[in-house]
Automatic annotation (TrEMBL):
<dbReference type="GO" id="GO:0042393">
    <property type="term" value="F:histone binding"/>
</dbReference>
<feature type="domain" description="Alfin N-terminal">
    <location>
        <begin position="2"/>
        <end position="63"/>
    </location>
</feature>
<keyword id="KW-0732">Signal</keyword>
<dbReference type="Pfam" id="PF08263">
    <property type="entry name" value="LRRNT_2"/>
</dbReference>
<keyword id="KW-0433">Leucine-rich repeat</keyword>
<dbReference type="InterPro" id="IPR052595">
    <property type="entry name" value="LRRC69/RLP"/>
</dbReference>
<keyword id="KW-0472">Membrane</keyword>
<dbReference type="Pfam" id="PF00560">
    <property type="entry name" value="LRR_1"/>
</dbReference>
<dbReference type="GO" id="GO:0016020">
    <property type="term" value="C:membrane"/>
</dbReference>
<dbReference type="InterPro" id="IPR032675">
    <property type="entry name" value="LRR_dom_sf"/>
</dbReference>
<dbReference type="Pfam" id="PF12165">
    <property type="entry name" value="Alfin"/>
</dbReference>
<dbReference type="InterPro" id="IPR013210">
    <property type="entry name" value="LRR_N_plant-typ"/>
</dbReference>
<feature type="domain" description="Leucine-rich repeat-containing N-terminal plant-type">
    <location>
        <begin position="111"/>
        <end position="149"/>
    </location>
</feature>
<protein>
    <submittedName>
        <fullName>Uncharacterized protein</fullName>
    </submittedName>
</protein>
<keyword id="KW-0677">Repeat</keyword>
<keyword id="KW-0675">Receptor</keyword>
<keyword id="KW-1133">Transmembrane helix</keyword>
């Protein structure tokens, strides 16, 4: 059956002959017939996806102006033969592409099916028998639970088997599902290592393996998938990332929290200029916070708490003008002052620096912004070594709901303006050297 969207061949084949010389009529038929062949080639190129070699060959023919030359414009007989050869080449190329694309499509959907069956064979616990009953060769793989196929190529484009309480390991054959764009197996009990073959999935945009029991090394090539936008490996047992050479140019969200990752903060994240969400908390990272993080100006969430980081908080974090949440809690070796520029970030609504070794005074204008009101809702600075007095204009941070300044070395009186914080639900200021009721 001819697809309805296939270009119609009527133009050029049904030209009226009345009043036309035979050679002129043949020229029009020739030119428009080849134009139709090119249109058909475009259609099948989009429908099945020509490979790199096929595209190069096709466009080489397509861009040659001699292909479109009417016969009467060709004077040299040898040139005429060459042009006819080019035109015939397009025809043969088209026929070959149609045949190979059709067979390739069939082969690849079978490859997808085999990869998913390999995954099914690795499942050792399926309490609700979702996969055992549903993933059967008697039905199309595109109808299997958790499987989505693309309309265009009839290939598996998404695999989402999250929250099924499955137990098992991940087979390397998943790396053969070449059109896969989403891979989600989060909230299960998968264990073992991640296969390096997953890095072959060059169309992947979303990976979510969070809340499993995966362990070992995180395959470094995964971070180099250029199409990857979101990667979550949260709450597993990964221990290391080895030889990560660079970060994906389109990576916007990276969550490696709640693992056992060691060493310094991975340097590849500094190349991820599109990064908006970064969570490396609850690992065993050590060393300093690189000042180059301040170049990731699209960051909205920076969470690197509950590690073993040391040194000072870089002033460059003040360059993160779109930052909304900052969490550096429980890095007891973090020292120095809190960069005052942080309080100038208009979008920042949460600061959590609890349980570090930070010193110095808080800026008294931390809630006074000339161009915008403070959006700060959560201010958690307890269990540090902060000194001075509680900022007298703290009451101007009208959006505050949680204020935790306890167990520092604040002195003096409690500012009267704190009474203006009508939205506060939690207020901790004990464990300091405060006197009196208020100023």
């Amino acid at each position: 059956m001819v697809p309805p969207e296939l270009p119609e061949p009527a133009l050029g084949i049904n030209f009226a002959r009345d009043g036309m010389q035979e050679k002129d009529w043949l020229s029009l038929v020739a030119v428009h017939s080849y134009s139709w062949l090119l249109a058909v080639a475009f259609y099948f190129g989009a429908r099945f996806g020509f490979g790199t070699n096929e595209r190069n060959t096709f466009y080489t023919y397509f861009q040659d102006p001699k292909v479109y030359a009417p016969p009467q414009q060709v004077e040299n007989s040898s040139l005429m033969e060459t042009y006819q050869t080019l035109r015939l080449s397009i025809v043969f190329f088209l026929l070959h592409s149609l045949t190979s694309s059709s067979s390739l499509s069939t082969k690849n959907i079978t490859t997808d099916e085999n990869a998913l069956l390999a995954l099914k064979a690795r499942i050792t616990h399926d309490p609700d028998t979702w996969l055992a009953k549903n993933w059967s060769t008697s039905t199309s793989v595109c109808n299997w639970i958790g499987v989505t196929c693309g309309v265009r190529h009839h290939r598996v484009t998404a695999l989402n088997i999250s929250n099924l309480d499955l137990t098992g390991t991940i087979p390397p054959q998943l790396g053969n599902i070449s059109f896969l764009a989403l891979l989600a197996i989060n909230d299960n009990n998968f264990y073992g290592s991640l296969p390096y073959e997953l890095a072959r999935l060059r169309r992947l945009k979303y990976i979510n393996f969070s809340y499993n029991q995966l362990s070992g090394n995180v395959p470094s090539p995964i971070f180099n998938i250029s199409s990857l936008q979101e990667l979550s490996l949260k709450h597993n047992r990964f221990s290391s990332m080895v030889n990560v050479s660079g970060g994906g140019p389109n990576l916007m969200s990276l969550d490696l929290s709640e693992n056992s990752l060691e060493g310094e903060l991975p340097s590849f994240i500094l190349e991820c200029k599109q990064l908006q969400f970064l969570n490396l908390s609850s690992n065993n990272f050590k060393g300093g916070i690189p000042k180059e993080i301040g170049n990731l100006t699209k960051l909205k969430t920076l969470s690197i708490g509950v590690n073993k980081l040391e040194g000072e908080i870089p002033q460059e974090l003040g360059n993160l003008v779109e930052l909304e949440r900052l969490s550096l809690l429980d890095n007891v070796l973090l020292t120095g002052q809190i960069p005052s520029l942080l309080f100038n970030i208009s979008s920042l609504w949460k600061i959590d620096l609890t349980n570090n070794s930070l010193t110095g005074d808080l800026p008294h204008n931390m809630c006074s912004h000339h161009h915008h009101p403070s959006m700060l809702q959560v201010l958690q600075l307890s269990l540090n070594q902060l000194t001075g007095t509680i900022p007298y204009n703290l009451g101007q941070c009208r959006e505050l709901t949680i204020v935790s300044l306890s167990y520092n070395q604040f002195r003096g009186r409690i500012p009267r303006d704190i009474g203006n914080l009508t939205m506060v639900k939690v207020l901790y200021i004990g464990g300091n050297n405060l006197i009196g009721r208020y100023l």
